Structures are given as structure tokens and as C-alpha cells.
Amino acid sequence: MKEKLQKIREEAIHQIESSGELGKLNDVRVAFLGKKGELTAVLKGMKDVAPEDRPLVGQLVNETREAIEKKLDETKQKLEAAQMELKLKHEVIDVTLPAKKNRVGHRHPNTIALEEVERIFTGMGYEVVEGPEVEYDYYNFEALNIPANHPAKDEQDTFYINDKIVLRTQTSPVQVRVMEKGKLPIRMIAPGRVFRADEVDATHSPSFHQIEGMVIDKNITFADLKGTLQEFAARLFGPETKVKFRPHHFPFTEPSAEMDVTCFKCGGKGCRFCKGEGWIEILGCGMVHPKVLRMSGIDPEEYSGFAFGVGLERIALLKYEIDDMRLLYENDDRFLRQF
């Protein structure tokens, strides 16, 4: 029995040393130590060994098992180390290659322009107020001195939900809602999305954004309006910017005007950007109509105010010299990455 165990041990070690790979090494383990392995067969034959010899034979079997298992473990570690080394040689990382950069998103040109306008006006003591995009006809038209037969209420310009509810065509209804609260004085701007039934082209869209502002207080005059908008233009387009007011008509302001600014490309000399005129139209404005004040519960004999409205997209187009409004909505990453 001793000689048989010695032979099993030597054969097992020989096969382990010549296995060369982990798969063959496992086959050796099964062949000698598995349920049907040679060493297991010796243990099953213990019943044929004389009782007085069984302890010695059992000890020899355990010593043989331990020797085989030790050799198996040592060889396995060597094969795994060799396999890892070979893998590292074939999977070399070139640390000189540029790393993959995570592309972080950033603000849209409209958002950049809006935040700049908000910083200018909040710096002058204004608050930013928002309101509903789906609005009552009363707030969108009637409370702004736009009667039922006014051309602005034509269905060609306005999206009607029903005869009393519309998609707001301006953010002026927010001003009415603030006036109705009766908390005076008021200094506010109302940015937001508005809707008009326009065809899509380089300068029009059925959905766009406006920023409207309003001041209501005692002794407010057109001079306050002019000074405020002059400061706004200088901060937005540069300290050398000049403004010009042209008479106009808006139902909710009287007197009303449109304001131009000197072209910030040529300084007013005339260029391709301003079409040779030296001036660029930027917004509409005027003194709040006494009837609008009265409908909102404010006494026009005691209080007065001014209002103005500017298109957010127009600011972005001018400030960043974009020649097509549709670029702002197409989500082309090549365009948006420039800002």
C-alpha cells in the first residue's frame, strides 16, 4: 500500500508540473482527488486493510493528499501569475493618449441673454415676476385697453382655446395681475414664453419669449422711462450706446414710443449689420394708459407709470450676431456649443 501511494504521489506531481495551464491542472485535481480519483479509490479500499494497519495507511493517504494539494496550489499560483503577466503585455495602456473628455452642458443663448437682462433690472431694484401661459381673454386683452373689436384679437394673430381663454400673446397680463394686488409702488419685469399665429421664418416663430417691465409710483414721468431704458441699453450693449425714441401707438400706453439703439457694430456710422441706418430697433414702451390703471384699481390721478417690452430672442440675435431665429430652436449642438 505504501508503494502504491508513493507511485500515486509521484505520478500526480509529474502531471501537475507538466500541465502548463489552469484547465489541465484542474483535470489533474479531478483525476487524483475527485470522487472517482485514484486517491479516493485507495480510501474506499480501506475495508480490505487489516484493522491494525488502518491507522498507518490512513496517515499515508492524508500525507499523499496534502502533498498533492500543496503542489496543486503552488502550480496554480504560478500559472495565474504567468497568465496575468501575459495579459498585461497584450493589453498595454498608452498613457500618452488623450483622455476621453466628459462634455458638460451649458446655458442656451436665450438663457444667457435672459439672465443678463434680469441682472440689470434686479440691480435697479426690480423684481422678476412670472405668470400663466394659458391666460384669460380679459387679462390678455380687455384689461390692457384692447376692446373686442380690436385687430389684435383677430384669430389670425391669437391662439384661442375658447372664447374666454387664449395662449397669451404677451407677458403684459402678468403686469395686470400684479397691479390688481394693489401693493404699490411696483417695479417689476415679467419674462416668459408667448404665442402668436406667425409663420416660421428667420425672424418669426409661433412661440417665442418676451421680457416686459413696468413701474407704477407717484410722479413717474416719461423722463424716468427714458433714463431707465438708457441705462438698460448702456449696460446691455456697452457704455457708448445711445437711444432714440420714435412716436408709436400701443393700446395700453399713452404716449407710446419705439426705442432704437445705436448700432454696436459701427457706433452709429452705418454698416451691413444695421442696414446702413446706424440705429437698430430694440423695444416698444410708453406711459401706462390711465384707463389700464383704473381697470386694475389704481387711481391715475395719484399714480402714474411706464411700461416696456422687448423680445428676448431679438436681444440674443443682436447681441450674438445670429442671423436666423430658427437656429435658437433647432438644438444643433454645433451651433449651441459656441456660446
From TrEMBL:
It is found in: Cytoplasm. SUPFAM superfamilies: Class II aaRS and biotin synthetases, tRNA-binding arm. Residues 117-330 form the Aminoacyl-transfer RNA synthetases class-II family profile domain. It comes from the Bacteria. It catalyses: tRNA(Phe) + L-phenylalanine + ATP = L-phenylalanyl-tRNA(Phe) + AMP + diphosphate + H(+). Gene3D superfamilies: Bira Bifunctional Protein, Domain 2. This is Phenylalanine--tRNA ligase alpha subunit. It comes from Roseburia amylophila. The lineage of its organism: Bacteria, Bacillati, Bacillota, Clostridia, Lachnospirales. The gene is pheS.
